[in-house]
Design goal:
CATH topology of one domain: FAD/NAD(P)-binding domain
CATH superfamily of one domain: FAD/NAD(P)-binding domain
CATH class of one domain: Alpha Beta
Largest sheet: 8 strands, mixed
Distance between the termini: 47 Å
Shape: globular
Radius of gyration: 22 Å
């Protein structure tokens, strides 16, 4: 078939690759001037800055890493140790730093202050969380939100809000105020598997190299915003803002659903629009910069992940130190990514500000997705929808690939990459 895919984020690119390899003719339409998936990746002093940074646990990003391996991508391990600091009005005070063991890659507390002031509370919280997760998965009531889970289990506050929740913010890149509405199960599965000793993985060449493999041999039309999608008999008519037109056998919309009514025919797709508009999205700023004030005051406390928060956990931000996980940036000036900054960043040191859109996952998301999949199975269906928002939302990249696999199943397209183990090479620049 001749298939149009609207959007070149991870879901659109994965769907395009799978259907292309299954023998279909695929055309990707992208509103941006480049490729959506790596549109924010930039060069810095000859190195690669992926925005957002993508490092993946082999258990939680299983399909994403398998797809990358199938396409010939090579991975290297990274150690994502962390530092947590209190934000006071007149100073920043680092209260916890961690590293990982060389054997097993297990997290350990490596600063005396953290051990002396918070060691027992952190250990207590860790044991409480482990017990609470075990009880959760043994219970018959697993359809609860994260907020409900927290209310049922009184876990040590410093451990939960000071160490666990920041990690969830990092992976979900969502507003701390909305994460409590998430279904608890996928988040607890994530926390349970996160303690596994496997190191996180990063792709050689970063996101741009992965995108190159995904679109190989596929027609991608950048700068082509879609203004019209209308079914005409057995085919679907697609029109762009530039006035170009095309007729396709099938169309797959792989964009956030917040703007679908701008191009879907309002009468033909009225029921789809009504369903898809119920998915909620939020935006946040990812600032790429060279301002070292987002890191612990003492240079020896710097970690790959730097979390800063006030004592009441009402103001919090996290920063990634890019040089520590990207070989092409080793030896270059320090460069950082800060998500939703609450501290002032020197405007002269900002390289770029990226506005990221993320789905708001809540208890209604699962029901909406079930209804969407049922609609996809309706006879004579010719327009389909996918994206990270159409799965459980964690991790976002993996959900996007999973949504592409759901589309592939409808098209009876083979998935030869499933189950492939990542090809891992050591990155000597990072000290392995």
């Amino acid at each position: 078939m001749d298939i149009a895919i609207i959007g070149s984020g991870m879901a659109g690119l994965a769907t395009a690759r799978i259907l292309k390899d299954a023998g279909h003719t695929v055309t990707i339409f992208e509103a941006l001037s480049g490729r959506g998936m790596d549109s924010h990746s930039i060069q810095f002093e000859g190195g690669i800055i992926d925005a957002p940074l993508r490092v993946m646990n082999p258990h939680l990003w299983k399909n994403t890493l398998s797809l990358a391996t199938h396409l010939g991508m090579t991975m290297f391990p990274v150690r994502t140790y962390m530092a947590c600091s209190w934000l006071f009005e007149d100073r920043t005070e680092t209260w916890l730093t961690t590293s990982r063991t060389r054997i097993g890659n297990f997290p350990i507390i490596n600063n005396r202050k953290g051990l002396k002031q918070y060691g027992w509370r952190l250990v207590k919280g860790m044991l409480q969380l482990k017990t609470a997760i075990q009880q959760f998965f043994k219970s018959e009531q697993q359809e609860i939100t994260l907020a409900e889970f927290i209310n049922q289990h009184h876990i040590e506050e410093v451990f939960w809000h000071g160490a666990v929740m920041p990690v969830l913010y990092t992976v979900c890149t969502c507003n701390p105020k909305t994460i409590g509405d998430w279904p608890a199960k996928p988040l607890l599965v994530f926390l349970r598997q996160l303690t596994d000793g496997d190191a996180l993985l990063r792709m050689q060449g970063g996101t741009p190299a992965f995108v190159d493999r995904l679109i190989d041999g596929i027609d991608i039309r950048s700068g082509a915003a879609i203004t019209g999608v209308e079914q005409q008999g057995e085919q679907v008519h697609v029109e762009t803002a530039q006035g170009s037109q095309g007729v396709f056998d099938r169309v797959i919309v792989a964009t956030p659903t917040s703007n679908i009514e701008e191009f879907l025919h309002p009468e033909q797709f009225a029921e789809d629009i009504a369903l898809l508009k119920q998915f909620r999205f939020e935006q946040g700023d990812l600032v790429i910069h060279t301002d070292t004030t987002v890191m612990p005051p003492r240079r020896k406390d710097w970690s790959v992940l730097s979390y800063m928060m006030d004592r009441k956990f009402t103001r919090q931000q996290f920063t990634v130190w890019m040089n520590a996980v990207e070989p092409s940036l080793v030896g270059k000036n320090p460069v950082f990514q800060t998500w939703r900054p609450v501290t002032d960043i020197d405007p002269k040191k900002i390289i770029s500000t990226v506005k990221l859109t993320r789905a708001v996952v809540d208890s209604s998301t699962v029901a909406l997705n079930k209804e969407l999949q049922q609609r996809h199975r309706m006879p004579d269906r010719k327009v389909f929808f996918c994206g990270s928002w159409s799965c459980d939302g964690l991790p976002i990249l993996e959900s996007a690939v999973t949504s592409a696999m759901n589309i592939a199943e409808i098209f009876n397209a083979p998935l030869p990459f499933v189950g492939l183990k990542p090809h891992i090479e050591i990155a000597p620049q990072l000290g392995y």
